[in-house]
Amino acid sequence: MERGKMAEAESLETAAEHERILREIESTDTACIGPTLRSVYDGEEHGRFMEKLETRIRNHDREIEKMCNFHYQGFVDSITELLKVRGEAQKLKNQVTDTNRKLQHEGKELVIAMEELKQCRLQQRNISATVDKLMLCLPVLEMYSKLRDQMKTKRHYPALKTLEHLEHTYLPQVSHYRFCKVMVDNIPKLREEIKDVSMSDLKDFLESIRKHSDKIGETAMKQAQQQRNLDNIILQQPRIGSKRKSKKDAYIIFDTEIESTSPKSEQDSGILDVEDEEDDEEVPGAQDLVDFSPVYRCLHIYSVLGARETFENYYRKQRRKQARLVLQPPSNMHETLDGYRKYFNQIVGFFVVEDHILHTTQGLVNRAYIDELWEMALSKTIAALRTHSSYCSDPNLVLDLKNLIVLFADTLQVYGFPVNQLFDMLLEIRDQYSETLLKKWAGIFRNILDSDNYSPIPVTSEEMYKKVVGQFPFQDIELEKQPFPKKFPFSEFVPKVYNQIKEFIYACLKFSEDLHLSSTEVDDMIRKSTNLLLTRTLSNSLQNVIKRKNIGLTELVQIIINTTHLEKSCKYLEEFITNITNVLPETVHTTKLYGTTTFKDARHAAEEEIYTNLNQKIDQFLQLADYDWMTGDLGNKASDYLVDLIAFLRSTFAVFTHLPGKVAQTACMSACKHLATSLMQLLLEAEVRQLTLGALQQFNLDVRECEQFARSGPVPGFQEDTLQLAFIDLRQLLDLFIQWDWSTYLADYGQPNCKYLRVNPVTALTLLEKISREMKDTSRKNNMFAQFRKNERDKQKLIDTVAKQLRGLISSHHS
């Protein structure tokens, strides 16, 4: 029973499910009925469902049939009406067809026009879109065209800015176009091109600067010269009206000797276009001559490109190379001043450019770099100047070089470069300048001394007298009172030498200008150089003249007179130096002039040369002596050669009137002593082995002639018989033999008041032996003792006795 209940329950559920599916089929769209049917087939009650479905279909068919039966009459009426309408519809269709045909025929042109309008609208839309796109592209193309134009006109920095705008602003807006991609790809190449072109411009600039550095330097040095001239004018204005002469007035004379050698530089083209300026025209600034824009452009371009450090390194490296080239002097620089000027102009031009770059750029060059270059330049310049200036032997060129170096130093000092080492080097060149001056003045003195006539200067008018006195400080009241014509005691070389000494002082002073030295330093330099001139140059010149082989006694006498007056003029030279340096001689450490010593030494040398010359003349006369030592004749006059010698001595000592007294007296005494000594040697020479008393008598006459000359006082100032003492040895010796006064000689020998005190036993023995040999020579028939033959043996015995006693005196004297 329960089983039956369960089956009943299951059939009820199945029926309900089938009912639900049927409702769902009825209400669901046909396209979505598949899942519903699938659920039926998935179940086990497929047959029962089909039965229910058939039942439901039959029910619906019955309902449809009922409904159709209900509406059948209306359906028939509708069909009847529809048949009526079909005819009318056919008519309407024909009318519509005909109307359509007509409409198609009439609208064919309109369709064509509308098709054309459609195409025009399409083109218009395309054009509008194209214009819009072109409006986006045009700024890009314009910027690119502008970029090309800027690069073509070498406006590289604006081109680089345009390239930046193009890359970052315009190209991103149209980046999807193919031409833009080409542009983007070309941008790095354009940057490199700009970089390379700007570097090429920089190289051209550096090359032009190297070639035209001398013109830039010349302009800068002209500016410095103008400024210095202006400063000098300002400094000199307060002195206008002053009675005291300035230093420039002092060496106007020397200025006439120094030729100005400042030829103008040749015209050049390129970055410079400046004609030579007249002295009274304003010289353009060095920076006005150079277009620095390539440097600035290249610096900006490399800075924008992030390669500033590369640019700085390249610029500094190239300028260092150029500096080394500039600092390499030409091998013949020392030959002319233009060589030095061009060398200095190039150096100045180089550093003027670097200084301008330093002050107009931010960090392209710095002070440390400039200082390093300047230290190198300074050392190389000083070394080159030392080397080349040492070849210079012309003081005018050395002076011009000094002025050029001062201008060079002043010019660079204006630009802030330290130049103390240059001024220190100028002090070295000053010593060389002094040496070249000394060489030049050695030639001047030599010419003056060689061309002098060594005769007192004759003057025939007051004008000539004042001219000589104006050239040389000389005062002599007695000479002034004498009527014209009259003579100065000195020769022409005195005023000439004096003026040349002053000219030398002017020359030394000229070098000291603009060296920033104190008056004391200038005074010390002048005095030291002048002392060298006096003690070395002038002294050597005088010594050479004095030692000349063909110098005469008259010339030597005149040299002594001249040096005496030059010695007196030394105080005026001291005053002259004091006046031009404004340093009093009483100042501590002031060097004194050694002119007095120089002229004294020269005078003493001339005096010695006079003594030597006189002695040589005496020797020449004595060479003419021709004594017959074996003669028996007694002469009655002095020998001819001695008479001529005495006449020569008288005429010579007559010229000594203007000599200082001691000089003339010394010369006269020296001549007499030399004459006496020579006569003694002549009498005692070994070649004369025999002589007679007759020859001794003749010799005695010659000695008497000499004594007569000595007594006549050829030179004033000697005391009585002073000059005769030169012949006292000869006189006593001859008296001893002529008077044959051996008893007195032997008896009084060694006593202070001995009559024959000056007779040496050796001399007496030598002469006695010569007479003894003659007496023993029996071959001579004209012997003086021939009339005393009976006493000949006694006489010979006496001679032997005297000789023996003389030998005894000699041996006792030696013991």
TrEMBL record:
Organism from which the protein derives: Pan troglodytes
Function: Component of the exocyst complex involved in the docking of exocytic vesicles with fusion sites on the plasma membrane.
GO biological process: intracellular protein transport; vesicle tethering involved in exocytosis
GO CC terms in record: exocyst; plasma membrane
Annotated keywords: Coiled coil, Exocytosis, Protein transport, Transport
Sequence ranges assigned to domain Exocyst complex component EXOC6/Sec15 N-terminal in this UniProt record: 52-221
UniProt family annotation: Belongs to the SEC15 family.
Segment forming the signal sequence: none
Superkingdom to which the source organism belongs: Eukaryota
Residue runs in coiled coils: 82-109
Keyword Coiled coil attributed: yes
Pfam families noted in UniProt: EXOC6_Sec15_N, Sec15_C
Span of domain Exocyst complex subunit EXOC6/Sec15 C-terminal: 421-770
Name of the protein this chain belongs to: Exocyst complex component
Region annotation (Disordered) ranges: 260-280
